[in-house]
Specification:
Number of helices: 6
Oligomer: single chain
Helix content: 25-40%
CATH superfamily: Gcn5-related N-acetyltransferase (GNAT)
Number of domains: 1
Order of helices and strands: EEHHHEEEHEHEEH
CATH topology: Aminopeptidase
CATH class: Alpha Beta
Distance between the termini: 20 Å
Strand order of the largest sheet: 1-2-3-4-5-6-8-7
Radius of gyration: 16 Å
Shape: globular
Strand content: 25-35%
């Protein structure tokens, strides 16, 4: 478990199935993930159960909790100990909690774990170019734009660029002095 002032990153619990199901698949949030919300059926209890199982089975994934309620998940994928790198992924599912600094708090906890406990050198991610809120969040955590993959994402029948971003351990440590956004 990783504890911060605004959020907690923790292993999943059985009650998370019902909480994830209640959050469903908000079309605006799905679009920010680069998914066409019209192409997805409503979230089912079985789907929410698989979501919880996937987090439980992943060695570096956590439920993001805020005020004792499930908010989403964050994980470090493709962990490469040889090169000391990983890829970050985060998803927050409650549209009412966006823009409050909670994503930033979760990313910072995950990065502190990646660079501290795991001893990684770099963490990267990719984000669809129109997701300005996420890009601002990542930049506030020390990520810099490293490239653009043109027309890599097909969302709602339209092509969009993906932005590749990365942060090095030394950049995160320098940026870590910034205060957390108020929840």
């Amino acid at each position: 478990m990783l504890q911060g002032p605004a959020v907690t990153l923790r292993p999943p619990r059985p009650k998370d199935v019902a909480e994830r199901l209640a959050l469903g698949r908000d079309p605006g949030i799905m679009r920010m993930f680069g998914a066409d919300a019209t192409g997805w059926p409503p979230l089912t209890e079985a789907g929410a159960g698989r979501w919880v199982e996937d987090i439980a089975a992943h060695p570096h994934a956590w439920v993001v909790e805020h005020e004792e309620r499930l908010l989403g998940a964050v994980r470090l994928d493709a962990l490469d100990q040889q090169d000391a790198r990983a890829r970050l992924a985060i998803g927050l599912y409650d549209p009412g909690k966006l823009g409050k600094g909670l994503g930033r708090a979760a990313v910072r906890l995950a990065l502190a774990h990646a660079f501290g406990t795991l001893g990684l050198h770099r963490v990267s991610l990719r984000v669809v170019a129109y997701n300005a809120r996420a890009i601002r969040c990542y930049a506030a955590c020390g990520f810099v734009v490293e490239g653009r993959e043109r027309e890599a994402a097909l969302v709602g029948g339209e092509r969009h660029d993906d932005i590749m971003m990365g942060v090095l351990a030394r950049e995160f440590r320098t940026n870590d002095e910034q205060p957390e956004a108020a929840p």
